[in-house]
Amino acid sequence: MPHKSFKAVIPAAGLGTRFLPATKAMPKEMLPVVDKPAIQYVVEEATAAGIEDVLIIIGRNKNNLSNHFDSVPELEHNLRQKGDDAKLAKVQHSSDLADIHFVRQGEPKGLGHAVLRSRAHVGDHPFAVMLGDDLIDERDPLLTKMLAEYDKRGATIVALMEVDPEHIHMYGVATVEATDSDDVVKITGLVEKPKKEDAPSNLAIIGRYVLDPSIFDVLEHTAPGKGGEIQLTDAMEEQAADPEGPGVYGVIFRGRRYDTGDKVDYIKAIVQLAADREDLGPDLRPWFKEYAATL
Fold first, then answer.
1. Which parts of the sequence belong to the Nucleotidyl transferase domain (predicted)?
2. In this structure, are residues 170 and 260 in contact, taking their beta carbons and an 8 Å threshold?
3. Which domains are assigned to the chain?
């Protein structure tokens, strides 16, 4: 069922410098993962959880994003004339997914600033923030669980995942307490990208958040943190420390997640998703084994 009380916010204003020169003229969110741009997977995840209103935060030279989710009458007419109904359905699917809006971030001042730019659109609605670098396998729903936890607790909900201590410095990391629910913890503290020896746990924040609109008031006075940027983690840490507030909770995700944040992980994501597809896997899996044997 549509979850009309929630909206989704997808920050997509980054420069994508790790993927240059591919991202010189194309947003990194439009890089294909098998045969769909990465951002389409994220929008599909939101709609699968019942969210119909999606706001994408963009920067300069991001017109390809809005074009992708718009209809293309000439292409659709051409496919219809050819009788290629399968391709026509795929083209129309992206423009029929959701009610999609766009707003400019302006200056790139961090994730917290990007979220704050959504305030006018989100209004008094609770909302999900979904980062495009993290793709969650549709067979392992995460956002649905997070929305349910928000409905239950009225608190900020973040997605957590156990991470190898060697990689913990790449994430925001949580200090947690157990609750009466399996795979749900109360977060008592957050630290952004700590050194391995300073990390309070191996539970890292991955790119899914469900936030109450009260987060905007916190972000308004959140000072720039690590990297000189306004960190969403810092705002949530303030919420976690407020004894009179609803708190911050984490849903521990143990499913399949594909990190498209750097070149190696991006390639791994394509390989994993392609190998699992019914139309591609039967041909690819034997070839992978043969190729691996030559290395």
1. 7-273
2. no
3. 7-261 (3.90.550.10)
